[in-house]
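User: I'm new to structure prediction. If I give you an amino acid sequence, what do you actually give back? Let's try with this one:
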Amino acid sequence: MSETLVIPSGASKEERYRSLSTQLSALIAAETDRTAALANVTAALHEALGFFWTGFYLTKNNTLTLNVFQGPIACSRIAYGRGVCGTAWAERRTIVVDDVDEFPGHIACSSLSKSEIVVPLIKNGKVLGVLDIDSDKPAMFDDTDRKMLEKLCETIVDTCF
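Assistant: Good question. You get back a string of structure tokens that encode the predicted 3D arrangement of the chain. For your 161 residues, that looks like this:
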């Protein structure tokens, strides 16, 4: 893949994800540096799907620590079980939140965030981090997002960790 994304115009969300997934798989397979690979994944997701905030938190010293991202300034560290990211880590599952103001203990890094999806990165039973995506629109994420992002995260874990 070159440094240009090719996303079919007028494509459905699922078609955009499929096109992006193929391009990202090729991109990260050729990259030996994890940070560089995750940075390009973040930028590609953010650009192709128009998210408000897109990034990774990786586990470090029993805390989720901010890694590469696109969007406004973010929280640097998130405790286990706290907020949407910490809950996804603790429960080892993807969490989709239609209205972040309704999520108990939501951490508001930006008051402009309205909905969120968090996908844990799991290898050999251990959560290595999470992919966190926010939208400035309520109820932005659906089952297509969940399925496609989980599949992408499996590829990321297999290739980068």
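You can read the tokens as a compact description of the fold. Here is one thing that stands out. Residues 92 and 126 are 9 Å apart (CA to CA).
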